[in-house]
TrEMBL record:
Residues 40-50, 125-149 have a biased composition (Basic and acidic residues). GO terms for molecular function: single-stranded RNA binding. InterPro entries: L1_C, L1_RRM_dom, Transposase_22. Residues 199-295 form the L1 transposable element RRM domain. It holds the Pfam family Transposase_22. It comes from Monodelphis domestica. Residues 1-10, 158-170 have a biased composition (Polar residues). This is L1 transposable element RRM domain-containing protein. PANTHER family: L1 TRANSPOSABLE ELEMENT-RELATED.
Amino acid sequence: MRGTRAQTNTGRKEGVNLNKQQKQKKETTIDSYYSPNGTEGERSTNDKPEIPANWIQAVEELKTQLREAEDNWEKNLKIKISHLETEALELKQENSVLKAKIIQLENEAKEMKDEAKEMKDEIKRMKDNLQRNSDQKEKDDQKAKDEIQSLRTRVKQLESSDLTRQQDTIRQNKKNEKIEENVKHLIHKTDNLENRSRRDNLRIIGLPEDHDKRKSLDIILEEIIQENCPEILEQEGKVEIERIHRSPPVFNPQLTTPRNVIAKFKNNQIKEQVLQAAKKKPFRYHGNMVRITQDLSASTLKDQKAWNMIFRKARELGLQPRIKYPSKLIIFLQGKVW
């Protein structure tokens, strides 16, 4: 469409130039016929008739009108030419913009072509990678299948060996249970033997350490009996002690409580009388509270200690708890033993 407009404008310019040349030729002919003062000019022949004055005036007016028309025509022509030049400049600018856009589109097309080529290459690489991965996966799958088959075979072997091991374990567990029962029986028997070996012993708890520095422990024990249950000495006379010592034998200065005293009586009856008297009332020695109990093995004492909280709670409830040898808790309630 723009090409058509350009051709039309060019045709108009050529037509204007042709008309202008024709008018100049015509004016030259008329001017050459008359002189500037309105007289007849020279002609090729001298025998032509004289032209009237009114004709000359009319011709002058016509020339004036022609000049004015020509000036107006030239002005309009210049305006049109200016407009055409402006349009041509705009067309030139549009053409430049179009060329720039065309160049840009060509560059974009080139870039798209390059990108398409890169994408094509990338797709090809991806296909190659997929093919390699597929081949590798098939190899891995086959390897995994072989390993699974090997593991299944191994599992079957392990299951068969595990069954044998389970049977061996069951037999071993039975043996262990029997051994544990024997061990428990031996421990119980050992504790019983140890407690029997301690049946003539009494444990004195709470006796201060400084007393046995001034006196021997057997004299202190006799004084304790004399102070708390003198009737025993009156009946039996002197209390015979086979041996007496602190336990543990080595003094630990970090301990805040005094060590226990273990006394072995030669006469079991006197030991029982002292123990029964200690159960009826608390013993004192030079103003200090001392507690006398039966001497037992460490394991039996540990078992009895487990009942301490229940023992104290039963006393708070007004019950009469007792620890029966070796470590059994009994309670007296309403004349019955529970």
